[in-house]
Design brief:
Length: 73
C-alpha cells in the first residue's frame, strides 16, 4: 500500500498491486486495473518511487540502489 494525497490535501492509501498506469495530464493520474482513476498531488516520479519501495518491502523486487538507478551505463 502507498500513501498519496488528493488535490484537496486529503491523504489516502492505495493498493500499489492494482496500479496499471501513472500519467501526468498535467496532474498526476493513477489508473487501477479495474479502470478507476485517482488524481493525486504527488508527481509521477514520486508515485513511482512509492511503488518501488512498496514492492521492495514485500520482496516482490530485489534490492538495488534507488539513488543510482538514473545513472547511464
Amino acid at each position: 500500500m502507498i500513501n498519496v494525497s488528493r488535490l484537496n490535501g486529503k491523504m489516502f492509501v492505495l493498493n500499489a498491486l492494482y496500479i496499471e498506469t501513472v500519467e501526468a495530464f498535467p496532474d498526476t493520474t493513477i489508473t487501477l486495473t479495474n479502470g478507476k482513476k485517482y488524481v493525486v498531488k504527488e508527481s509521477v516520479e514520486q508515485v513511482r518511487m512509492f511503488i518501488l519501495q512498496f514492492y521492495q518491502s514485500i520482496n516482490l523486487l530485489g534490492k538495488y540502489d534507488l539513488e543510482g538507478m538514473n545513472d547511464e551505463k
